[in-house]
Amino acid sequence: MNPPKIKICCIRTVEEANLAVSCGASALGLVSAMPSGPGVIDEGTIRNIIRCVPPAIATFLLTSLQNADAIIDQQHCCRPNTLQLVDSVAETELIRLRHALPGIALVQVIHVGGPESIIEACAVAPHVDAILLDSGNQKLGIKELGGTGRTHDWTISREIRERCGKPVFLAGGLRAENVGDAIDRVQPCGLDVCSGVRTAGDLDESKLRAFFSAARR
User: Fold this and answer.
1) Separate counts of helices (H) and strands (E) for the chain
2) In b/e form, how buried is each residue of 123-150, taking b as 16+ CB within 10 angstroms?
3) Which domains can be identified in the chain, with CATH numbers?
4) Which residue, 120, 143, 132, 209, is CA-closest to 172?
5) Which residues is 85 bridged to in the sheet?
């Protein structure tokens, strides 16, 4: 198995983006307006960071919007090459996004709970380029759509990876101490980390390098 690609999420400044890339990140996550969670920055800041990112690096715009027209407008404003849909998006809206944004990758987040998450992932997989498995909770009064720092049941994650037919990113509570076990158990194509490489909210170079080292081992 090839080493998984690593996405550093909740990037807030050009300096953080440069640090993540210098440590080996293949992708950066930039968080637009959310009902909860860390790392939210305004769309102007997102656009300015993306302008400074090398072309080979994937730029993921995390959006909680569920309407295709609104998501298309957001993509046109921020200009990411990947849309990370952190809430559920109807099949009709995904089809509209695919037709309107043919060069933009679509990544649907599945917040892993019970076996129903497997059904959800397999249903949406034909309409997106990848699935990202996280540990949020869409059923709360204020939705958790990422950035919780919690792990979930990796047994379910592995089954989703085996059955959905699309590349899978694993997120949720990853850090240097558990990433090797996560890779062994799930075998994802990519890893997504935020809180596990931060100290007091700031990107921590020593934690970044420890995470990359552990993931590559």
Assistant:
1) 8, 10
2) ebbebbebbbbbbbeeeeeebbbbbbee
3) 5-216 (3.20.20.70)
4) 132
5) 63, 108
Distance CA 174, CA 193 (A): 6
Task: Find the Cα–Cα–Cα–Cα dihedral 212, 81, 112, 178, rounded to 10°.
Answer: 0
Q: Residue 1: what pLDDT?
A: 67
Q: What is the DSSP string of 151-173?
A: ---HHHHHHHHHHS-S-EEE-SS
Q: Which amino acid is at 99?
A: H
DSSP 54-115: -TTSEEEEEE----HHHHHHHHHHH--SEEEE-S---HHHHHHHHHH-TTSEEEEEEE--ST
Q: In the numeric block, which tokens belong to residue 153?
A: 């049941």
* pLDDT greater than 70 at residue 184: yes
Read off the tokens for 19.
């640090």
Count other C-beta atoms under 10 Å from residue 176's C-beta. 19
Enter the tokens of residue 160.
Answer: 């989703």
Collapsed DSSP state (helix, strand, coil) of residue 204: coil
pLDDT tens by residue, 121-157: 999 999 999 999 998 888 888 888 888 889 999 999 9
Mode of pairing for the β-strands spanning 105-111 and 130-134? parallel
